[in-house]
Amino acid sequence: MTMAELNQMAFVLDEENPDLFKWLTGQLQAPEHMLKNPVFVAIRDHVAQQLQDSAPAQTRAAAGRDWVRGWDDGWRGQQQNPPGVPQPKAQ
Questions:
Q1: What predicted TM-score, i.e. pTM, was given to this entire model?
Q2: Nearest by Cα to 19 from 4, 40, 5, 38
Q3: In angstroms, rounded to a whole number, what is the distance separating the alpha carbons of residues 27 and 66?
Q4: Are the C-beta atoms of 18 and 37 separated by less than 8 Å?
Q5: What are the start and end residues of every segment in region (Disordered) (predicted)?
Q6: CA 41 and chain centroid, separation
Q7: How far apart are CA 40 and CA 43, in angstroms?
Q8: How far apart are CA 28 and CA 34, in angstroms?
Q9: Which is the most buried residue in 44, 45, 61, 90, by most CB within 10 A?
Q10: Largest CA distance in the chain
Q11: 72: Cβ–Cβ under 8 A, 6 or more apart, which residues?
Q12: 23-76 confidence digits (pLDDT tens)
């Protein structure tokens, strides 16, 4: 990498990881200052190509949608199954 590219990469790495991940994977539109950064654009394009080559379209979230809904273990410690798991039938 050239010195200019290293400086541009430093700006990419200064971003918050959750935001950067969503921008690179197309879950959120990247802000204008990132879209003007050639290193960010090159990485984003590489990630998009990897996703296209490696993951069938039906297994990917739609563009602009979160991949996961987040961590949800609030049910732990309760006397019931996790959300979405049916309760056993009483006998």
A1: 0.65
A2: 40
A3: 5
A4: no
A5: 52-91
A6: 16
A7: 5
A8: 12
A9: 44
A10: 72
A11: 83
A12: 998 889 999 999 999 999 999 999 999 988 888 877 776 766 666 655 555 555
